[in-house]
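Supplementary Methods S3. Input chains for the assembly prediction are listed below.
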Amino acid sequence: MRQAGRYLAEYRAVRAKHSILEICHTPELAAEVTLQPVEHLGVDAAILFADILLPVEPLGLGLSFSEGAGPLIERPIRAPEDVAALPDVDPPRDLGFVVEAVAACKHALAQRAPGTPLIGFAGAPFTLASYVIEGGSSRNFTLTKRFMYQHPEAWHELLRRLADLVGGLLGAQARAGADVVQLFDSWVGCLAPEDYRRFVLPHSRRAIELAQAAGVPVIHFGTDTATLLELLVEAGGEVMGVDWRIPIDQAWARTGDRAVQGNLDPAALFAPRPELETRVRDILQRVGGRPGFIFNLGHGILPGTPVDNVRAVVDLVHAFA
Amino acid sequence: MRQAGRYLAEYRAVRAKHSILEICHTPELAAEVTLQPVEHLGVDAAILFADILLPVEPLGLGLSFSEGAGPLIERPIRAPEDVAALPDVDPPRDLGFVVEAVAACKHALAQRAPGTPLIGFAGAPFTLASYVIEGGSSRNFTLTKRFMYQHPEAWHELLRRLADLVGGLLGAQARAGADVVQLFDSWVGCLAPEDYRRFVLPHSRRAIELAQAAGVPVIHFGTDTATLLELLVEAGGEVMGVDWRIPIDQAWARTGDRAVQGNLDPAALFAPRPELETRVRDILQRVGGRPGFIFNLGHGILPGTPVDNVRAVVDLVHAFA
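Predicted structure tokens for the full assembly:
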């Protein structure tokens, strides 16, 4: 959640001239905005400027980003035939621009912030499936679940392909220099645990194993996963992401030997400073210095977030450590 | 979740001629659509046709319902002054049309489905606050949380007023003949447990106590509440609503002596019949005949739900009992 975004004036300046996809497709621009949070906020790691949906771009479904409505898929997948018709994709080749962006970021970091690790990422199979089926964001994921229930074979085929795609892309990021990669299952919390186990877990595991085969640790991130934590651990990843709906010590007690990442509510960054600081301290105290904790937000930083508050949190965490 | 809606052809026929607010404001129409699920689906209880947002209508903020975008508030609450400027409301007087709708439903039920209980309902203070602050539905509830953190006194004043309003309306529904009332906290699951305890719990408790003072049991409903269950119990209610994110037996083990309601994923109604039946049976088997379980969906029925599948679930539950 250290990615550059509209909350940063420096990012808005770049976005005034370039679309999100242009930035992603231009390694120098991607590197420039990737370094912004490191240089302007003092965070400990850079996160590649990219979008969780980039892996689906070479599928040719018409991915675009609209101001306000978020990602849109022009030709969504609605029937088993649509899955069968998907083209074969070779991630390092067909998503070469992401690989180049990683290399450009590594180069820029070596010059301007030596020693700062780079985190790569991509959307998880379920979250990607939800976008390509719904055609965009969704509240209830009705079309996604309907497809999953009505066409289980085509569903598993779709998720297998997405897992290979995402795992391949994460592996390629790692081979290009990413020190860690993150599998982003933003919307998986809409599922009942048994549905996750049956329809999603094997595919997330496959994507994670493909990334790990490239020799990097994997952060397995989701939101609204309080009842899925043990299953997310089963799917894999060295670090488990945790949102704010569950106190971090309770979550960590359930993820066993995995490291954990989280769990400040991004909305807390709008709180008055003393209230914000109390919340940050509460998380740090619950963790109690146990090694393997990565302080982070529980989900993406919100538009309009006061940058001074972000800096204050970074400083407070550093002072506490 | 037995309320009439667009999934029913009989309801669509009424809606072709009348808006949602017209139906709510016309007791005979409200009674007509309230009886539709009882007569056409065979459910065991009628749920008043109403909207969770009706209690805020007399606040004069400009409530309307748009096709597609859902409820809209023309003049949202954005500052402490907006709370101070809210008019005094007397629920039985200013929401007399809801009270009359309850009476009309009771009358119609006595004639056409004698012995069928009537469930009244209204939105809970937090969920109503989220609508009047955001101006409509929301994904992240940023404005709501920002108001809560930045203006805690005005927040508590707003929720106190909403609690009196909702509690007063639920009490009036009970006095007009509703056999049970339901407090609908649809979006409360966006909160961290400590935020719920501090900013919401006392107000939900107040609303529930006002309803109980009218002599009826209260169903306390929310979604995405797996980490809030104990706190919802603390706030009150004889029956706790549970969504599909947590297996019903695990949820019930945590709500102690309360009855529970739930927990089928509304999306499961799109599954092929054998798959749907497996899911219904799984819930009933987990409950194992323990008294105090109300079979229900975990949230509202989705547009486009096949009515035959709804009937099949009703029949299956009846056959199992």
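DSSP finds 15 helices and nine strands in chain B. The beta strands of chain B are 46-47, 63-66, 70-73, 118-123, 180-185, 218-222, 239-241, 259-264, 293-297.
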